[in-house]
Amino acid sequence: MVLKKKIIVWFRQDLRLNDQEALWTAFQDDAIIIPLFIWSPKDEKKWPIGNASRQWLKQSLELFSDSIKSKGSRLIIRQGAVLDTILEMVDEVKADGVFWGRCYEPYNIDLSTKLKTALKKKNLIAESFNTRLLFEPWEIATKQGNPFQVFTPFWRTCQKMSENIKKPFPEPETLNSVPSSISSESISIIQLKEKNHWKFTTQRPWEPGEKGAVKALEHFSKDGINQYSEERDRPDHQGTSRISPHLHFGEISPRTIWHHLTHISKRTSNTQKKDEIEAYLRQVIWREFAYHLLYHFPHTVEQPLRAAFNEFGWEQEKNLLKAWKEAKTGFPIVDAGIKELLHSGWMHNRVRLIAASFLIKDLLIHWIEGARFFWENLVDADLANNTMGWQWVAGCGADAAPYFRIFNPVTQSQKFDPDGVYITSWLPELKKLPAKWIHSPWLAPLEVLKQADIELGSDYPYPIVDHDEARKKALSLFEEMREKTKD
DNA sequence: TAGCTCGTTGGACAA
DNA sequence: TTTGTCCAACGAGCT
Description:
The chain is mainly alpha-helical. It is built from 20 helices and five strands. It folds into three domains: about 5-130, Rossmann fold; about 135-165 and about 210-295, Serine Threonine Protein Phosphatase 5, Tetratricopeptide repeat; about 305-480, DNA Cyclobutane Dipyrimidine Photolyase, subunit A, domain 3. Strands 3-2-1-4-5 form a five-stranded parallel β-sheet, sandwiched between helices. Strand 1, helix 1 (about 20-30) and strand 2 form a beta-alpha-beta unit. It is globular, with a radius of gyration of 24 Å. The chain binds a DNA duplex through helix 5, helix 10 and helix 13.
């Protein structure tokens, strides 16, 4: 009789059973599988998991643990430094090796490398799999063999290579049991921080976990996809897929999304629908692009991709930053966005752009401050996406907007939330203000404000900056930076 | 290799 | 009210 191999499958940002190549490979090898999750925020260095993400993770793990149980196995949860914990576990259960899905944050790459070396030294099996991306960051390159820094050619290359995207792996029908002698921590070891406690609201309910992720995809692909390219920009409508937190925690794989939507696209003769699906898949490729950049330019989590921006004259106005974080800027679209973030752990993409542009170009505060605030409060906080997004808005990242493109928070608000429906859903104090004035209450006649029961300065703040002046100042600082870095 | 084209999400102003 | 044009800059990526 052949002795079965014993494999620890270490789960990180791939909390699902479907299209889980690490798990599926161990299952196909007929190995005895020990599913493991490690709670180890200290290993995450300067980007330890934020409060909103913790809350999501707790629920996601709870559900993942249940689905593993339903297959006859048990998820082992341990706490401590990743390397020590795995090596101890390997000895404890006399494992023959470890399988895991790859992560691409600099600290995670470092951990994987060290783990592989340590396991190989012990003559054990160490295998990592692609569980998070359509393409590995090193599989896509320009014709010169360099990493891409512009999205469109990256997108075209991905399209050409899309035939290679593997079909999702099925989930194992059953799993072996895990001996009760192997101890596990409770999920309650994942503690929320006391301050700035993020709460679920009933206003925008989420359903974490693999089932919730599949439901979100099915709902979106039946309905939302048909007007995606227009509707995705409307925070007052439900035009986006809302799949981002599911993708971040790996409750669904991008391959599943890709194949599900390309299948629909192939079946329909409706060219508009095909275009809408392509518009959405383009966004999925933006996520790939973010990982491509994170992998090839890992310093960008702290430093600008364009070095010239190290010379930019950022301001250090603590009070302005505080007002932004507390939704007290006096610009309703910005404040509504921050409120949405604090109350629901999520912010509409268009509003993220407006709020980010306001922090950077109106308040002239360094993008890293905004990146850290988002990191702490978003349920979909993702180092690759967050870094790319903030650098894009700041103009210091890949494919960034030219310096003179500065969002006007009032015209953006008028364009994408014309009736102020989004604004008033998060700022009820402005409910009685007519749509004409909702985007810039400080311009409303006193009579109108009175009728709307608003006294500026007490019910709702005065604007903390004058946008036109702030814009001019930003442009002159960019000009200074260009002079300084000219050569 | 040198030159050419092009770039997720814009704004201001004029007609 | 909508549509068109310029803003003005630069480097990536291709041929």
